[in-house]
C-alpha cells in the first residue's frame, strides 16, 4: 500500500535575483544544497509549514509565499511517495543564520551548484527560475543516485500566493 508524506520546499530570491540555498548538514539529503522545507505538522496548512520550516532552517520570516510547483518523489521499493509543495518568497524579514540543520548561502543564478544537489534539481529548477504557470514533476529514484523515470509538465495554474495575517496587520 502506497502512502503520501506531505512536505514543503521554499526558495528565497532577493532583489539582486540571487537564490538562497542551504547545505543540508544532517538527515535526509545531508551534503546536498537545497531550498528550505520539511514535514507538515498536524494542524498546519501547507503554507504555514513552509513558512515555519524557512524560519527554523535559516532564520528568515516570509511575508508571503507563492506556490510555484508540486513534485512527487518515489523511491524504488519504498511505499512512501514524497509530495513536495514548492514555494517562492521574495519578501521576507530577518537575518540569514546558520542552523543545526542548514548552512545557507546566496547564489547568483548562473552559479547555482547543481552538481551538489539532488539529480532532479537541474530538471525542474530551470522551470522555476523562468517563472510562469505552476509545474508538476514526478521522479522515480533507484537509491539516491539514479532516476529511473521522470515527468515534468505545466499544470496551467497560475502561481498562487499566501499572505500571512501577521504581515497584513503590520502593514495596516
UniProtKB/TrEMBL annotation:
PROSITE patterns: NUDIX, NUDIX_BOX. Its EC number is 3.6.1.56. Its cofactor is Mg(2+). GO terms for cellular component: cytoplasm; nucleus. It is found in: Cytoplasm; Nucleus. Residues 1-130 form the Nudix hydrolase domain. SUPFAM superfamilies: Nudix (SSF55811). Oxidized purine nucleoside triphosphate hydrolase which is a prominent sanitizer of the oxidized nucleotide pool. Catalyzes the hydrolysis of 2-oxo-dATP (2-hydroxy-dATP) into 2-oxo-dAMP. Also has a significant hydrolase activity toward 2-oxo-ATP, 8-oxo-dGTP and 8-oxo-dATP. Through the hydrolysis of oxidized purine nucleoside triphosphates, prevents their incorporation into DNA and the subsequent transversions A:T to C:G and G:C to T:A. Also catalyzes the hydrolysis of methylated purine nucleoside triphosphate preventing their integration into DNA. The gene is LOC113204888. InterPro entries: 8ODP, Nudix_hydrolase, NUDIX_hydrolase-like_dom_sf, NUDIX_hydrolase_CS, NUDIX_hydrolase_dom. Its main location: cytoplasm. It comes from the Eukaryota. Keywords: Cytoplasm, Hydrolase, Magnesium, Metal-binding, Nucleus, RNA-binding. It catalyses: O(6)-methyl-dGTP + H2O = O(6)-methyl-dGMP + diphosphate + H(+); 8-oxo-dATP + H2O = 8-oxo-dAMP + diphosphate + H(+); 2-oxo-ATP + H2O = 2-oxo-AMP + diphosphate + H(+); 8-oxo-dGTP + H2O = 8-oxo-dGMP + diphosphate + H(+). Monomer. Belongs to the Nudix hydrolase family. One of its GO terms (molecular function) is metal ion binding. This is Oxidized purine nucleoside triphosphate hydrolase. It comes from Frankliniella occidentalis. GO terms for biological process: DNA protection.
Amino acid at each position: 500500500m502506497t502512502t503520501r508524506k506531505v512536505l514543503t520546499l521554499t526558495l528565497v530570491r532577493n532583489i539582486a535575483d540571487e537564490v538562497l540555498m542551504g547545505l543540508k548538514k544532517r538527515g535526509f539529503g545531508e551534503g546536498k544544497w537545497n531550498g528550505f522545507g520539511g514535514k507538515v505538522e498536524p494542524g498546519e496548512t501547507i503554507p504555514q509549514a513552509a513558512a515555519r520550516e524557512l524560519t527554523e532552517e535559516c532564520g528568515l520570516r516570509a511575508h508571503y509565499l507563492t506556490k510555484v510547483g508540486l513534485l512527487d518523489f518515489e523511491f524504488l521499493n519504498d511505499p512512501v511517495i514524497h509530495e513536495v509543495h514548492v514555494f517562492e518568497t521574495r519578501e521576507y524579514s530577518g537575518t540569514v543564520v546558520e542552523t543545526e540543520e542548514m548552512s545557507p548561502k546566496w547564489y547568483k543564478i548562473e552559479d547555482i551548484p547543481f552538481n551538489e544537489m539532488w539529480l532532479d534539481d537541474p530538471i525542474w529548477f530551470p522551470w522555476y527560475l523562468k517563472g510562469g504557470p505552476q509545474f508538476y514533476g514526478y521522479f522515480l529514484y533507484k537509491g539516491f543516485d539514479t532516476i529511473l523515470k521522470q515527468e515534468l509538465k505545466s499544470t496551467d495554474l497560475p502561481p498562487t500566493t499566501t499572505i500571512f495575517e501577521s504581515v497584513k496587520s503590520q502593514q495596516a
